[in-house]
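TICKET: design request
STATUS: open
ATTACHED STRUCTURE:
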């Protein structure tokens, strides 16, 4: 790791999913499905419940976002810690 970079500058890897800033294709990208599945496995929750939490969290973040590239990462972290 580069000592001059902050931890949040590095991509998050969820299973085989690598979430870099700017990877998002739109509000319902295929990447969301991978994130939801990974969250469901990690948390032991039903995928439908995780999807609802993720979409709600993403919408809250999106409403005030100036930089959209990090929304998936932030929503992932917020749902994971919920």
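STATUS: resolved
RESOLUTION: sequence designed for all positions
ATTACHED SEQUENCE:
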């Amino acid at each position: 790791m580069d000592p001059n970079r902050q931890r949040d500058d590095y991509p998050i890897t969820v299973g085989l999913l690598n979430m870099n800033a700017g990877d998002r294709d739109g509000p319902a990208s295929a990447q969301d499905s991978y994130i939801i599945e990974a969250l469901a496995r990690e948390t032991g929750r039903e995928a439908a419940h995780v999807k609802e939490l993720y979409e709600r969290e993403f919408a809250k973040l999106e409403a005030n976002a100036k930089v959209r590239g990090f929304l998936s990462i932030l929503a992932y972290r917020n749902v994971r810690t919920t």
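CLOSING REMARK: DSSP finds three helices and two strands in the chain. Residues 7-80 form one domain.
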